[in-house]
Each structure stands twice: as C-alpha cells, then as structure tokens.
From TrEMBL:
It is a multi-pass membrane protein. One of its GO terms (biological process) is mitochondrial electron transport, NADH to ubiquinone. Core subunit of the mitochondrial membrane respiratory chain NADH dehydrogenase (Complex I) which catalyzes electron transfer from NADH through the respiratory chain, using ubiquinone as an electron acceptor. Essential for the catalytic activity and assembly of complex I. Core subunit of the mitochondrial membrane respiratory chain NADH dehydrogenase (Complex I) that is believed to belong to the minimal assembly required for catalysis. Complex I functions in the transfer of electrons from NADH to the respiratory chain. The immediate electron acceptor for the enzyme is believed to be ubiquinone. This is NADH-ubiquinone oxidoreductase chain 2. The chain crosses the membrane at residues 58-80, 150-168, 199-219, 239-262, 268-291, 320-341.
Length: 342
C-alpha cells in the first residue's frame, strides 16, 4: 500500500472504477468504469527514479486507449442497432464486444503488449496489472461467455502461448507474465462453466501471485540466476519462492492444484474433452520447465558465503509472507480433508 496521498487517492479511484464497471447495468456505465480505472492506473505506474516506467506507461496507455475506443465504438453501434440496456444477447456481436475486453485483460492472441509492459514496472504495479486489472474486463466477458469456436480458440491460444512463451525465460517478470497469460486462459475456461468457478480460481491465483511478489520485492531480484546466489538468511526466501512457483504451476501437494483439479473435472463433466486434453498437455510442458528451474536451484546451485547479512530479522513482512506461504503449502490438504469429513 503506498503511503503517498496522491497514490492513495489514485488507488481508491482505481478500485472504484472496477466497482462501477462490474456493477453497472448498461454498456456505457461499464465503459466509463473501465476508463476511470485506466486513468487512475497510468499515473500510479510512473516513478521518477526509474526511466523504464515511462515507456511502460506509454505503451500501456496506447493499447488500453485503443481497446477503450474500440469498445465505445461497438457500444454506439449496438445502441443504434439494438438497445442500450441488454448486456447479454445471442447475436454475432458478442464476439466483437469480447475482443477489446480480451485485449484489456491480456488473453492470448492479444497478449503482445503484456510482456514488454511488465518488464519496465515496479513489482507492486506488476502485481496490480496481473490481478486487479483483469477483474473488470473478465466480469464483463462473463456476460457473453459461451461454449463456441471463438471462446475455445482464445482459451487454447492463451494456454499454448503461456506454455511456449515461458520456455527458456530467465527474467522472473517474464515468467510471471506468461504464467498470467496462461492463467487467463484457464480463468476463461472457468468462466465458461460458471462465475463461481471463476471467482474461486481468480482468488487463489491472486493470492499465489501476491505471495511470489511479496517474497521477491524486498530483495529486488529480477532474474532467476540472482536467486541462486543467496546467503543463509535468504535460503528461506529461495525455498518459498520456488515452492510458490511450483504451486502456481499446479503441482499436486500445493494449493495451485486445487483450482486446476476442479476445472479439469468440471470441463470433463461438461464434455469439453478435446480442449481439456490440450490444456493439460500444455500444463505438463510448463511443469517441466518450472521443475527444471527449481530442481537445479534446490539441489545443485547452492552457494553459502561465510558472511551473513540478515534481511528478515524482526520484519513484519516476513511474518505475513510466511503466513501466505503456509496457506499455499497446506490448504490443498485442508480442503480435501474437509470434503472427506463431510
Ligand atoms: C497454466 O495453468 C495451469 C493450471 O493452473 C498450470 O498447471 C500450468 O503449469 C500453468 N502454466 C504456466 C506457464 O504457468
């Protein structure tokens, strides 16, 4: 949470933009909320100590303004042809309305801006971009999500781009970006089943992302090889970072497996077998490279210098982070136990 009054104000207007957008009952209101949200996120991104933020915010502004004007144009067309207050309908234009929203949330064929914008931002803004900024567009998408060729194409390309794009990446921001694109695809699949599935997936995904960002932020590590050279205190951090990464990859003993499990089961019940198989194969591919990174860092590349700097002594952040971390370690077991007790 920022401690600067301007930033607090901007955070509040950003959140109210999201709330306006998801609670409005006409498309104009939804558009207005998205615009308030965008206009308060842009100044939040800027930081005069880091020149790359300017580039990122400019790119983000251009892309999002393009998506907004596209959305506004389609809404005007819809008002002229149909009426103003229906948000869900059966016609072809659901596909056209979904396109700018997918662009805003960074789903696959429209993801090209996402990695380069993320690369120039501070960790807190990365966190906001990966979680909060996806909320409003995805709720709006949920009004139109149906099982058709368009949605399946988006879901499949998102998971494929997320899996293939993450290969051989060493920048943690890039890895998190591709994992975010991938999870957007899975969240759209969850949205196809129903909204509650999406809420569950989104909550768990946001918590895991928040844990990773909280662990990385105090150390300012941007690349995987920086985490390999750590002294004694930071071994905890290394362990927590890689296990949370594996949790995001959906490896069974961790919490990240729970939403994946539920989505797989629900999609098979609903006869979406082909698309489900492709998604599972792609997630295997990602697990391979996540495991490759964490295996070498856990077992082989462990260097321990004689001197010791303690970063985490008496730190509240450490308590908070380890709480989130243990949540990600234990809650799958707790959830399955609760289901078995009932
Ligand atoms: C994509 O999401 C699935 C389901 O949570 C996961 O198994 C897979 O490892 C993820 N891939 C990436 C790149 O994060």
């Amino acid at each position: 949470m920022p401690n600067n009054p301007t930033k607090i104000l901007l955070m509040l207007t950003m959140m109210s933009g999201i709330l306006i957008s998801i609670s409005s009952n006409s498309w104009i209101g939804a558009w207005m909320g998205l615009e308030i949200n965008l206009m308060s996120f842009i100044p939040l991104m800027s930081n005069n100590k880091n020149i790359y933020t300017t580039e990122s915010s400019l790119k983000y502004f251009i892309i999002q303004a393009m998506a907004s004007s596209f959305l506004l144009f389609i809404i005007m067309m819809k008002v002229l042809m149909e009426d103003m207050f229906t948000m869900e309908n059966e016609s072809i234009n659901t596909m056209i309305i979904m396109t700018p929203l997918l662009l805003k949330s960074g789903a696959a064929p429209f993801h090209w801006w996402f990695p380069s914008v993320m690369e120039g931002m501070s960790w807190m803004n990365c966190l906001l971009l990966m979680t909060m900024q996806k909320m409003a567009p995805m709720v709006l998408i949920s009004y139109m999500m149906k099982m058709n060729t368009f949605s399946s194409t988006i879901i499949l390309t998102s998971t494929i781009v997320g899996a293939v794009g993450g290969l051989n990446q060493l920048s943690i921001r890039k890895i998190l970006t591709y994992s975010s694109i991938n999870h957007t695809g899975w969240m759209l699949a969850a949205l196809m089943i129903n909204e509650n599935m999406w809420i569950m997936y989104f909550t768990i995904y946001s918590m895991l992302t928040m844990t990773i960002v909280m662990i990385i932020k105090p150390f300012n590590t941007s690349f995987i090889n920086q985490t390999l050279l750590m002294n004694k205190e930071m071994i905890t951090m290394k362990f927590m970072m890689f296990t949370t990464l594996l949790s995001m990859g959906g490896l069974p003993p961790f919490m990240g497996f729970l939403p994946k499990w539920i989505i797989i089961q629900m999609m098979i019940i609903n006869n979406m077998n082909t698309i489900m198989t492709t998604m599972v194969i792609m997630s295997l591919m990602t697990l391979y490279f996540y495991l490759r990174i964490s295996y070498s860092s856990f077992l082989m590349l462990h260097i321990e210098p004689k001197w010791n700097i303690s970063y985490y002594k008496n730190n509240n952040l450490m308590k908070y982070t380890s709480m989130m971390f243990s949540l990600s370690m234990l809650s799958l077991m707790i959830c399955t136990m609760m289901i078995n007790i009932y």
